[in-house]
Every structure is written in C-alpha cells, then in structure tokens.
Amino acid sequence: MTYRSFALETADKIAHLRLNRPENFNAMDGVFWRELDEILGRLQRDAPARVLVISSSGKHFCAGMDLAVFEHGQAIPEGNAAVRTALHEQILQLQRTFSRLEALRMPVIAAIQGACVGGALDMVTACDIRYAAQDAFFCVQEINIGLVADVGTLQRLPRLIPEAVAREYAYSGRRLPAARARELGLLNEVFSDRAAAVEAALALAREIAGKSPAAIWASKQAINYAREHTVADSLQQMALLQMGVWQSRDVSEAVRANAEKRSARFDDLAPVPTFGAAA
Prior knowledge:
Layout: E1 6-11, E2 14-19, H1 30-46, E3 51-56, H2 68-71, H3 81-103, E4 108-112, E5 115-117, H4 119-125, E6 129-133, E7 137-139, H5 153-160, H6 163-172, E8 176-177, H7 178-184, E9 189-191, H8 194-209, H9 213-228, H10 231-245, H11 248-260
Parallel strand pairs: 2-3, 3-4, 4-6, 5-7, 6-9
Antiparallel strand pairs: 1-2, 7-8
C-alpha cells in the first residue's frame, strides 16, 4: 500500500515505518494522522511483524504539527462551550493514535535524527525504545507558540526523565540535546549519525524478533501495567499473564535451539479477527 506521509516496509518479521516528507521536515498534517492511525491499526490487527522500527528521511526526524493546520483553519476554531466539546474530542482522537504505539502487540523502536519537536516528542515518548544520532535534539515546542503540549509529552516525559527536569523543558521550550537526553534516560543510546542509529535500531529489532512473540507481548504488557500500579498489583497481573502465555513448546524450542546453536522457531502472533465477521 502507498502512503503520502510514510514509507512502510516489512521484511524478516520487522516492520520499518519511515516518515517520508523531508521537504516539509516530516511535519504532521491531517493526512499524516489519518495514515498513521490506519498503519498502526493494521499492524495491531494483522500482526505481520514482531517489531516496529520508526525512522524518518531527511535532516530532521519531525518538526511536529504542521503550522498550516492552524493557518488554514483545519483546527477547530475558538467558540462557545458547545464548540469546545468538539475540540476536546479532536484532541482525544490524536491522543489515541499515539497511544496505539504503547498498546501495539510488538515493541516499537524509534531512531531519531535532527529535530524531534512538538508532536514528534509526543510520538517518541510513546515508543518502547529510543535511539538517536548525536545531532538529535528535543523540544516541547508548543510552549513557544502559545500552546500546551496535549498529545502525551506532559504525561509520558516525566515518567522517562526526572520530573523537575521535564518541567524545566516543558515551561521554557529549550532544546534538549541528544547527549543530555541520554544522561537523563530519555534515550537508550546515541550514535554518530542517522544511518548508524537506524542500523542499530534494526539490529535490535532483529534480536527481539528472534524471541517468542507471546513472551515479548506479555513483557510489554507487564512493564506498561507496572508503570501505573503498585508492585503488589503488578505481581498479581504478572501471575495472570504468565498463566495465559506459558507455552511449554516455546520453552522447549528455545532450549533445543540453544543446544543446537540455531535460531529458535516460534509461532507468530495470530491476527485479531473482526468481531462478527463471517467465518
């Protein structure tokens, strides 16, 4: 399938989604949001891959929301309370798109270069793992144009770096360079350039894709759940997860593959059937 804002390739159980409007610094307009929501929905439903890598073309990862959205009246205009309820629902729609990254049945790895600002920061904070080139920088850009970051940064960033530091950047709109982002824990690793960051992301994706998809899914579920719950509640949920995903076949296959010095062969996650669809 062809997309205007993205290039999507799936090979060797890895989906590689590349933001593909470098002439616009990969800015997010209405088409971007519709296509991303469709792509993530299809990846969740069909499970054609075991890992998703997100990268971008051009000098910058993403300039955030395309300002033309505001200039051309695509955003809901100011108005009375009845109008503002529609704005509330529109914001929730955008939030749900990025929250799909957290809920995706596979890990999501971002490879970032250059500017990652505004909505782009919202997006990468919803990913599981973040690699970056040394020229990458991050910015809560919304505060610099009289807006509030409303699609996830203010909720997720303080869980990834110290809260006081998140407040500093959220209030000031300063740039957070890659080296400092690595020190704070926002980035897993920093590389010399974009190509090195993408290759490292793909190498990690290949390693993850070789594990049991069911066990990877359960691990992601457990980490996400533990972030919002007590240790006691999370341990209870972990016992239920393990009860649901335990497969002696996967364990035996992993042991045999290790002994035979070969790659293990695990079943892919099953597609999610559409409720009520004809058999």
